Amino acid sequence: MNERIQRGQETKRKIIETAIALFHERGFNNVTVDEIVQRTNTSKGAFYNHFRSKHEVFAEQFKEIDRFYVHHLVPQLDSNKTVIERLTLFLDLQMDYIQEQIGWDVTRTIYEHELSTEHSSYFLDPKRPLYDILLKLCEEGILNNEFKNSFTADEIVAVLIHAMRGLLYDWSLHRGKISLVGEQKKVFKVLLDGLRDNRMFYNE
């Protein structure tokens, strides 16, 4: 990698980290591109070389969130545990991370950005690492007869994703005044209980 490309990547990383920190600190709508540029000691030209608007920073934030899932959450899942137990832990860790590290205002803004008709939504990208994590777990769960055989792995993943979006949207509507972690425990317990094949557990 030549020096020019490396400098460009470092500038982009600095803009992302600073912008996200400002959004957490003051709220998305209260932060301007001018302020981001000033805090990063860069220029508007440098900012717009990487992003068309401050909303585009969220595309990178999405990738950061998925990378966090892959590198920090998945390694905490004990392969000796059942898939249901691993899914439960993953969802606990995921929602705790979003609640404590991302925050409701940034989450709300991500949803606003993804509802734009000007671009395709990252939510729907089948290559998202989150989908791959869930799909592998669900395929293993079906193989181990942990889930009812009336569901495919893709169908189970779709249900899990729909529940995640609903929880995050509802949390955003409440402006973070309810516990995302607490609500997800209730919702996913009902959901996973409905998906599990109880014959396996009765025979243990």
TrEMBL record:
Residues 32-51 bind DNA. The keyword NAD does not apply. It comes from the Bacteria. The keyword DNA-binding applies. Pfam families: TetR_N. Residues 9-69 form the HTH tetR-type domain. SUPFAM superfamilies: Homeodomain-like, Tetracyclin repressor-like, C-terminal domain. Keywords: DNA-binding. This is TetR/AcrR family transcriptional regulator. It comes from Sporosarcina contaminans. The lineage of its organism: Bacteria, Bacillati, Bacillota, Bacilli, Bacillales.
